[in-house]
Every structure is written in C-alpha cells, then in structure tokens.
C-alpha cells in the first residue's frame, strides 16, 4: 500500500505554479499569546497546586454540568511535587485520589483538589492482599455522569502489569463532592480474561439500557450492562462480553475506551488508545449502531477480530518552533450542548515526555459520520465564516499515524524519550485554486494528481507554536490516517 501522506506532499507541489494571482483572503491572522506555558516545572511542586489548572492531567474525563465543565483525572503527578509514603501495610495511604478541575470556557481551568482523601477501603481490600507492592499508589481512569440529581463517579484501583483490578462507584449531590462509596461494579484477578480498568458509561437511546465499556490489553475491551437505578452491574458478578481487542493483544495494548452517542449521525463511537502511554500513545475510533457493539472501523473491520483498527485520530507530532508532543491519547469526548464537539487528552511534552499537559481540541464529524480532530489545542476561538480564497496559502501539514515499533509495556523497559523518527513531523504544502475543490461552509476536497481527500474541515484556530490565530484543517486520507494542516503564510 502506498504512503498517501508522502504522496500528497510530493505530488501536490506540481500544482502550485502557473495558476495566476489568488483572490485576496477575507480572514487575516492576528497575534494571540498562548493562555499558558507548556513547560510547568516552575509550578510543579505540591505547594503550587493551585496553579495546576492545565498541568498534571492524565486519563481525563470531561463533562458539562450546567454552565461549567468538570474534569476528573488519574492522580498522576510529575515528579517531584509529591513524595508519597511507601506502602507499609494493608491500609490505604492517606493521600489525594482523582484530581478535579472546573472551567467555564475549556481554556482556563481551576484545580479543585482531589475527590477522595484516600483509596476507598473496599477497593483496597480487593487489590492489595493479592498484589501487595504492585498495587497502584492512587486511583486511575475516572468516569463521571449525572443520573437524575445524583453525580456518579467511577474509579479504578489497579495493579501494575497484572489483572488484579477493581472498578468502584461513588456518588454525590455535587460534582465537587463529598463522595460516598457505593461499592464494586466489576473486579478482576489473574484468573479473569479481562482487566477491570478504564470505564466509560453510555446509554442506549432506543432500549434505555446502560452499558459500561472497560478493559485493556489484558484480554481486550468488554461491555457490561448496568442497573441504571444503582449504577452497579445489572447482574452481580457479571463481567460482560467482548467488544474489541487488537492484533498481538497480549503484547500490544489497546485501552482507555470512550463511547459517545452522536444524535446527528445516530451512531455510537468507540474511541480507544493504542501504544505505550509515554511514547507512541495514539487514538483510534470505530462505530456501531448500539453501544455494546458490534463495532466496525474505517474499512468495515470488526475490532473483535485481533486486528489493528483505523482511522488514527491523534498521535505524537511536532510542528516547527516547538519540541513536540508524545503520549497523545486516553481521550475523553464530549459536547458543549450547542452542537460543538471536543476531544481532550493528556499530551506529554517532548523530549522528556514526563510533563502532562491538558489538550482540549475541537472534534468535527464528516458528512459520512467519521470524526476528525483539530491539529491544535482549543483556545476559545469563535466560529468564523470563511470563503474559498481564505484557504489559499502556505501550510505546515502532518500525516498523523502510529509509527509502530514493538515495545515493552511492562514499564521498566519502556523508554521515557520518544525516538526522533517516531514523532510525526511537518512538511510544507501550498493550497490554491487547483487543489482546493468543492469548497462549501468550511469543508472542501483536497485534490492532488494521484488521489483526493474529501470532507476536509477548515476553521479558525490557535497556532500554539507561533502564538497567533490562523486557519487549521483536518481530514482523513484513503489509508485511514489523519491529515493535519495549519496556515503559516
């Protein structure tokens, strides 16, 4: 199969000469300072936690309640902010668990502290006796929803490199707590075919049933039916049925499911993460008519068949004037209530890949229903009508794909630094009237000699590397890889 991203770069250059002077654009970029710095070593210490708004974010879930967005995330903190006490006995350590933030605009975030002051006892009593020193030192991968007037917060206590894990539920009358433990949803051990981690919950709009999708590379992802009245498993002890696992899944991970329903397409979308979290972590998506599956990928492939699915929506990348980003996955997908969709995840600042910044990006659905993700983080830009001539100019573009290499997923053998060749780097591309076709309402077909990419979305966004507003575009090529572009001239 040909590398379409490379072919696009090579061939479209043949079209940029002899076309005459392009019409004057109506949109003009303006200087715009970044809302925050990417490097947060100056506020990384525990005493500076009130400044952690967009920092130390890992495995986030975001939902809007009323006029406020709330984000909950794994209690992961870049060293050296907290020196956590060693586990000496079977009692949970007294520390914060599940970080909580809130925002009015998805740009400026207030750190609100932690949901719990310690690991819930019932979770600890299941995991620690079986895993001892391998027990995670904090809670992982939360999920939040509102049921009637009650907020439900799902959380995980897990074991490094093992299937000894526990998904629990806590409830509150406020998104900021206090939280009361309601017990176990699903738990696993070494005898289980799956791993009780990374929950997402979604309702079936037709049947009224509620499903939890969860799991990891230990056996894949599973769908478990919940009792909507309690938030727990409909059948006690049930662990659900298989939804997806990837090729060579005992070595190569797939994890972090997020399932959302889009009423405009009538489809359910299963977003998953592939790869080691500090290096080539990347997001894929499949689609289904029901939340519990079966799903299909971009080429109609069933993800239960031990395959690697497409498209790739996000992956490590680097535009010019920046060191780049790795670990760009474990996403949450949500809307603002008015039709705008967003995808948020961690982003690890390269080259060390240890600082975890909060990346919130616009997400668009193509006319055929496939989601596409912005090449840049959201900075509050308003919708701006564009005309075809606005598109013309010079761009940096990146083909977003997973540069696969077999890696040790156990942790100790996993490199903390992304190899140079594993970052998707930008190249230059000029767009003009010969390769921008069928422009309408910010959507066009990007044409070259060999092929074309339809449904490309262009919009006003923030150029974080050059601190200005500009035009951004996103699309999916015929190999299932995302094409990102930003206008630089």
Describe this structure in words.
The protein is mainly β and 489 residues long. It has a single domain (4-487), classed as 5 Propeller (Tachylectin-2, Chain A). Helix content is 5%, strand content 40%. It contains three helices and 30 strands. The strands form seven sheets. The protein has a seven-stranded antiparallel sheet with strand order 25-23-30-29-28-27-26. Strands 18, 19, 20, 21 and 22 form a five-stranded antiparallel sheet that branches. Strands 1-2-3-4 form a four-stranded antiparallel sheet, with no helix packed on it. The longest helix is centred in the N-terminal third of the chain and has 11 residues, at 121-131. It is globular. The protein starts with a helix and ends with a strand. Mean pLDDT is 89; it is low at 1-20, 81-90 and 409-416.
Keywords, separated by commas or semicolons:
mainly beta, seven-stranded antiparallel beta sheet, 3 helices, globular, disordered N terminus
